[in-house]
Specification:
Blueprint: E1 6-15, E2 18-28, E3 33-37, H1 44-51, E4 59-64, E5 67-68, H2 76-80, E6 83-86, H3 98-108, H4 114-127, H5 143-155, E7 161-165, H6 173-188, E8 193-196, H7 200-206, E9 209-214, E10 217-222, H8 224-227, H9 234-244
Domain ABC transporter: 6-240
GO molecular function: ATP binding
Protein name: Amino acid ABC transporter ATP-binding protein
Length: 245
């Protein structure tokens, strides 16, 4: 399909009368990596949750290719089957092995036979360097390994769009690198990614575009070399100064 993978048009979202998203407009092209940056409460996570239909929007439109997924009549499960999501917490089922965690969605969402789903799960684990952990339960995996399993689960069905919400924030510092290296590989393979992150060096090196949110609005966006090195807006400069002090 031609055109943007994701189109967000004048999206508003409020909680208890407080506007969290205030007229967001954003396009994401095929194979593009967009890094959302901003302080906690700026709207990054809420924006990702609206795209995955975990939060209904109050106004505006969200389109996945040409499908208006913000239409309340849309089949939410069918939409989510086209989008891979990884959150801060790994959200793995503790009673299932790494392989079973990945295969579960393939069987229940995509209707794959157990044998085919298991084979796909094994291949996904190999892709993230965890072939030897297929039979391990989450409590036998490090935080970085659990997050890599979560990434494998998100990409196993070849989603059209991958949403990553601060996926390194719950990790010990020494484990951050292994997860970001995997995201770098996915980006190099042509995945379309929208990621909320506080890892500025990673955003600079991997993202095609950086989008700075403040108070539920997009204040500035552009190439990482522009936004992160020579931001135009004072609010962007103030935010980035926290990472330089």
């Amino acid at each position: 399909m031609s055109g943007p993978v994701l189109r967000i048009r004048d999206v508003w979202k409020s909680f208890d009368g407080h506007d969290v998203l205030r007229g967001i407009d954003l396009d994401v092209a095929p194979g593009e990596v967009v890094a959302l940056i901003g302080a906690s409460g700026s709207g990054k996570s809420t924006l990702l949750r609206t795209v995955n239909l975990l939060e209904p929007i109050d106004d505006g439109r969200i389109l996945l290719h040409d499908l208006d997924i913000s239409d309340p009549r849309v089949d939410a499960d069918a939409v989510r089957a086209r989008i891979g999501v990884v959150f801060q917490q790994y959200n793995l089922f503790p009673h299932l092995t790494a392989q079973q965690n990945i295969a579960l969605a393939l069987r229940h969402v995509r209707g794959m036979r157990r044998r085919d789903a298991d084979a796909a799960a094994v291949a996904a684990l190999a892709r993230v360097g965890l072939s030897d952990k297929a039979s391990a339960h989450p409590d036998r995996l490090s935080g970085g390994q659990q997050q890599r399993v979560a990434l494998a689960r998100a990409v196993v069905g070849a989603p059209e769009l991958l949403l990553l919400d601060e996926i390194t924030s719950a990790l010990d510092p020494e484990l951050v690198g292994e997860v970001l290296d995997l995201v770098r590989t996915l980006a190099d393979d042509g995945a379309t990614i929208v990621m909320a992150t506080h890892e500025m060096a990673f955003a600079r090196d991997v993202a095609d575009r950086v989008v700075f949110l403040d108070g539920g609005r997009i204040v500035e966006q552009g190439a990482p070399s522009d936004v992160l090195v020579s931001p135009r807006e004072e609010r962007t400069r103030a935010f980035l100064s926290r990472f330089l002090d």
